[in-house]
């Protein structure tokens, strides 16, 4: 029996397109018009689905990316923290390599843009939630494998921060070498933590 995946809706295509555009250009350089064109969706439907504009679309793009990475993390962490770490690194390696070093993480891209002085944009708040979720998943797996809670939390933060920074370095250097170096060191830290 052959089961086909349902085609993404126009809204889902727009959100995925926005995540891709933000991962390549950053938030400020991504417009709703270009996102609609990139997603092959009518501009009117973009405004229909996202009546609050670019900030709403960016927030959804960040949540989309967060959920996508979290699904993979949850699945791979079932085999333990080392498997989860490898999967997390593999996700970002694929993004960087498949885009010829043009794309990174849209969650990071939204996080580093300067927000308006008088408010915290919803996309920035969503990015914080995504980072918290990724850290929580990693820390939970580390704790389940015997790592003391505070150390597990700190190590999870280090993993997320190191991977996010390394993706930026890979783009700048047009090389996966920073990811290879980071992967080796993070794996050694995780193995050391779970065998202590």
What does this structure look like?
With 196 residues, the protein is mostly helical. Helix content is 74%, strand content 0%. It has helices at 10-25, 32-38, 43-49, 54-77, 81-98, 106-112, 122-144, 149-173, 177-195. The longest helix has 25 residues, at 149-173. The chain is elongated, with a radius of gyration of 18 Å.
Number of strands: 0
Which sheet architecture does the biggest sheet show? none
Helix content: over 70%
Instruction: Report Rg.
Output: 18 Å
- The SS-based structural class is mainly alpha
How far apart the termini lie comes to 48 Å
Offer a few descriptive terms.
196 residues, mainly alpha
Q: What's the quick description here?
A:
The protein has 196 residues and is mainly α. The chain contains nine helices and no strands. Helix 2 crosses helix 3 and helix 6 (106-112) packs across helix 7 (122-144).
């Amino acid at each position: 029996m052959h089961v086909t995946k349902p085609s993404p809706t126009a809204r889902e295509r727009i959100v995925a397109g926005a995540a891709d555009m933000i991962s390549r250009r950053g938030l400020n350089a991504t417009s709703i018009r270009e996102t609609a064109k990139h997603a092959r969706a009518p501009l009117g439907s973009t405004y229909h689905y996202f009546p609050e504009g670019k900030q709403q679309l960016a927030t959804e793009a960040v949540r989309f990316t967060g959920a996508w990475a979290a699904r993979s993390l949850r699945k791979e962490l079932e085999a333990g923290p080392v498997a989860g770490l490898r999967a997390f690194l593999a996700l970002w390696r694929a993004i960087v390599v498949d885009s010829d070093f043009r794309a990174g993480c849209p969650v990071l891209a939204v996080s580093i843009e300067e927000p308006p002085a008088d408010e915290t944009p919803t996309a920035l708040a969503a990015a914080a939630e995504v980072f918290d979720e990724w850290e929580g998943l990693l820390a939970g797996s580390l704790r389940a494998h015997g790592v003391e809670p505070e150390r597990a939390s700190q190590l999870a933060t280090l993993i997320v921060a190191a991977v996010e920074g390394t993706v930026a370095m890979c783009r700048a250097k047009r090389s996966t070498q920073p990811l290879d170096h980071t992967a080796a060191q993070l794996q050694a830290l995780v193995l050391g933590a779970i065998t202590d």
